[in-house]
């Protein structure tokens, strides 16, 4: 029950918003629609569950991997901040630096990975551990998994209702939010690293 004592609505909402911005499931609607047209049917439940499990698994296993190679969470969080920064720049400027939307199969690949639980999302998930308690990050992941499932189910309807222009505006707004979060993540963890390694 000690695990639940750290539950915070504020941290959960923040973790949810950070992951929501990185996953950018609404911005991926056109890609999802094109994949649906190409493969006929996308197994929404399987894609969402696999993506959620990947994020939760990396939240715990990722830390052990870091310890194995001798990297602390603060350093990894700073690296994650750079990744989030690049993703934010992509979203704001509408450029493509590292994403690849080419697909060979539906559902788990490329929907669950790398479209939803890609390198940026997994890096962000682990980076959040430097700032928030695990229970709140897990809740944020679960909420995003539910949202991903819903969007996968109604992707064609969302595209028709919102239109490409509205989706692009939404993408840029979340890009700016993500940019601010990446700067906060960098400064907080850099200050911690500075305090740990520099002694006066």
Automatic annotation (TrEMBL):
Record localization: Cell membrane
Source species, domain of life: Bacteria
Keywords assigned: Cell membrane, Membrane, Transmembrane, Transmembrane helix
Any single Gene Ontology cellular-component annotation: plasma membrane
Predominant cellular place of this UniProt entry's protein: membrane
Transmembrane segments: 12-35, 47-69, 75-93, 105-123, 135-152, 173-194
Claim: Repeat is one of the keywords in the record: no
Membrane topology recorded in Swiss-Prot or TrEMBL: Multi-pass membrane protein
Entry similarity comment: Belongs to the UPF0056 (MarC) family.
UniProt name for this protein: UPF0056 membrane protein
Source organism phylogeny: Bacteria, Pseudomonadati, Bacteroidota, Flavobacteriia, Flavobacteriales
